[in-house]
Amino acid sequence: GFCMPLTGNHKFFDGFKNKKYLPLFLLLIFSVLFFATRLPGLKDDVINPDGAAWHYRSEQFIVGIKNKQFEKTYQHYHPGVTLMWIAGTAVEVYKKISGVAVYDISNFQNFDLVSKIAVISAQFLLTLLLIYLLSKIIGFKKSILTVSLFTFEPFFIGNSRLYHMDILLTLLLLNSILLAYLNMKNPGFWKSILTGFFLALSFLTKSLAIGALFFVVFYTIFYFIRTGKKDKIFSTVALILFSFVIFVFALFPALWVKPVYFLSDIFREVARVGVRKGHEQLVMGEYTERAGILFYPLVILLKASPFLILGFVLCIYFFVKSFPDLKKKFKNGWELIFDFNSFFTVFSLGYFLGMSFFAKKIDRYMLIVFPFLSYCAVIGYKKFYQNLKSFSGKRVFKILLFLLIVFFVGFPIINLYPYYFTYTSPLFGTPASANKIIGQKPFGVGIPKLKEVILERYSDKYGGEPKLGFYDSIPMKTIYPNSKVFDVRIYGPSNYDLLILALNEEMPEKVLENKQYVFEKDYSLWINGLEYWRIYVKKEASK
User: Fold this and answer.
1) Disulfide: which of 351, 369, 444, 486 matches 48 by Cβ 3.0-4.6 Å?
2) Which of 397, 393, 71 shows the shortest CA–CA distance to 261?
3) How far apart are the C-alpha atoms of 421 and 75, rounded to whole Å?
4) Are 117 and 168 within 8 A, CB to CB?
5) How many other CB atoms sit within 10 Å of the CB of residue 522?
6) Phi and psi, residue 512, nearest 5°
7) Angle at the Cα of 175 (from 172 to 176), degrees rounded to 5?
8) Is 353 exposed, middle or buried (0-12, 13-18, 19+ CB in 10 A)?
9) Phi/psi at 305 (nearest 5 deg)?
10) Coil, strand, or helix at residue 520?
11) pLDDT at residue number 268
12) Residue whose C-alpha is closest to residue 278's, from 355, 362, 359, 366
């Protein structure tokens, strides 16, 4: 087995199925590592601007349900319903327990922590379900290895610690297609219902997940036609669609009021923002709103660990090498197409290509591809080990594999704590070098630390909290007096004492055009090898 090189104890895994408590022991280790990489430092690492917006949306979502103002449960085109159910409910419980009913700058981080823990807990449950479902297809050993590989990728960890939807969507989508595959191979009433349920949750997280519904329906129909099971088409597909529609409507109260209006608005906004309108990115040192088709291949190379990439490359190599044998193994091409490897590949490749052609491109959108890369990496390393002939060669491979995991996964997890969101592959050299390939987004990383630095260095000089100028003022406004934080694109330098620029941000035009004041750099807050925040002090311009 693939685990043999990791343990060196062949007999241990020869009797794996008879080891009653071994799976539970491995799951316990997995669970400990899961929370150990997600909970420490969670309160003070990142206050992302999208998360700040989702706090307000979640609160309004719950208010809408409590007051039967169901139209308020539509807050955004994503539409983020699952996120609002999870975090909104957790915050409501916290309000009841703590007696604190209103957000303010003194308690925002407590509310943020509660929301993050709630989302991480949901991710954990979905991950356990994922291990279980995947084990039904490829066995427990390969399942827990695959899930562990992407779960403990540094960039994946960084995003899972955010109050955001991308990891939630990844896990929901993956559970959806695993259920769909199991149901396609052996249709059942409850499997069809659960497939529709998880597809509904995926869509309610991000509307682009509607593509997964089409993928599942068409693949299932195609499978039944080619395998001579046409009698299964109507009952299976109808149950999936029925379940999808029922759960979408049941969990999204806004649709109880104006279903046509809200659904139309969702897809209209998806087309406007996602398909036609781009998203500003710094690529190869130049700003662009249309990053191009090579953006996501670069993102994967930049944000996935070399350990994951190497395993994926090995998998591709062995696939190409063994393709003639695969054709012999399967009696006809259709059997090959309906194999799980093909099913998973078509889904992941379809998502990758679809997102590549959309105008809006963001690095974290590739998180959905990480499970596929991990699955391929497990196959790649296993095939490589099986092709080694000598005992000494296999022994060297075990040692090398261990060192690769320690150096490319373990070391970054320790070294980058708690700012895993900033991870870049050492293949690109230093973080500063990687930043020249694709610019790192500030995304509220280190905002609590930045506030601490500002108060320590400048509160005496300005008699309390100095007035601050930011490009993106939202994260700081959550924990700093709103009246003292200004958007530099709107307000001139006379309004603020300190100008705060994130990495890759240039001096604002209003500052450059102003003749009365100049700003001199006074301090830099470095995070993981990047000059993340630069603090400029305002001075009178010399005449």
Assistant:
1) 444
2) 71
3) 26
4) no
5) 13
6) -65, -35
7) 85
8) exposed
9) -70, 150
10) strand
11) 87
12) 359
